[in-house]
Amino acid sequence: xxxxxxxxxxxxxxxxxxxxxxxxxxxxxxxxxxxxxxxxxxxxxxxxxxxxxxxxxxxxxxxxxxxxxxxxxxxxxxxxxxxxxxxxxxxx
Length: 92
Fold this sequence. Notes:
By secondary structure, the protein is mainly α. The protein has helices at about 5-15, 35-55, 60-70, 75-90. The chain has four helices and no strands. Helix 2 runs parallel beside helix 4 (about 75-90). The protein is elongated. About 15% of the residues are buried.
């Protein structure tokens, strides 16, 4: 059996080689996100084209299509405006 000092030394060495956890990153500030108006227009057109191809039956389905299309590139207000506009054009 190993002496106590050897066990403690071996345990101390083992922890020295463990990978450290990365420092936590703060989430991006949503007010600092600025999207180019041309990019917003493009995303709006793509979302409208996808929605018209699918023929959604509810605003929730349209919101899902828009969410996949814009992929966190726009703020909540712009997202809601795109959903409302696409819903007005595609829902019966």
